[in-house]
Amino acid sequence: MAIEEKALRMPKQIKPGDTLGVVAPSMPVKPEEKEKLTAYLQDAGYRVKLGKTVKELSSFHGYMAGDPRVRAEDVNQMFADPEVDGIICARGGYGSSQVMEYLDLDMIRQHPKLFLGYSDITNFHSVFSRYCGFVTFHGPMLISNMIKNFDAYSKDSLKRALAMEDRYVFRNPEGDPMHILTAGRATGVVTGGNISLIAHSIGTFYQPVTEGKILLLEDVEESIAHLDMMITQLEQAGVMKGIRGILLGNFQGCSNERYDDSYQIDQFLRDRFAGYDVPVLANVCSGHAKPMGTIPMGTVCTMDTDSDELVFTC
Q1: Which entry of 58, 119, 196, 286 is annotated as an active-site residue?
Q2: CA 38 to chain centroid
Q3: Is 286 tagged catalytic?
Q4: Does pTM top 0.85 for this prediction?
């Protein structure tokens, strides 16, 4: 049964002077990063409210920002706080899966807000889409992108995505085109994110719903062998069943150097998705490489391989 092509609710737009909450639901923040991200947002004209894990520099052996209940409570409090207008993740990394069971989804559903991040933040996109019904943004994060040579393309894409009212047009940077793996045209709500996170979510309550949708997939520094295995897992778990189209990111640092370094990621993706009867576009500039474009998850995406753009509507 086809799923209705209806966008999720858009959160209110943010503007200079608004308050942005900063959370670290995955990896920890370092002292110098805390200072830089605060200064960056303030210089951009926003008020800043730091979550407890960011403010206190919480860290569990350097790879997670402390206790999962505390990380979840940071997110819960930012959504519940009437002074906070939007929420930006400091970085991705590891550990967001531990947070999912402690989110107050009933409360969050009643307070939709800008929520921005990618990579390990994929789980949040999935759970907010599935249970809370509002658009989130697969886009740059403070430590990973904004305080480190935030380029003009990434800034412009983010600005236009956050400002969309009924339509947003996504284009790759000039001279770096998307690649057609399977030709065609498709329309559907966009979902997905990082392949590793989606594969690890299978069987959980926050596994993304993909039937009738456009599926975004991206990853970083994975071996081709592991990517192949994870895509097979998605297929056998039914994640790829009934999708209308596929958008593939740039797969920064993914290679087959351990086995046969002549087999490059571009060719692997062509080989792996050759049998799909839906349109497939690769090298969509939204993922771990720089520059990074922003994709509004939960909006309706129209992809047409005869065009050099993706159109998102709400």
Answers
A1: 119
A2: 22
A3: no
A4: yes
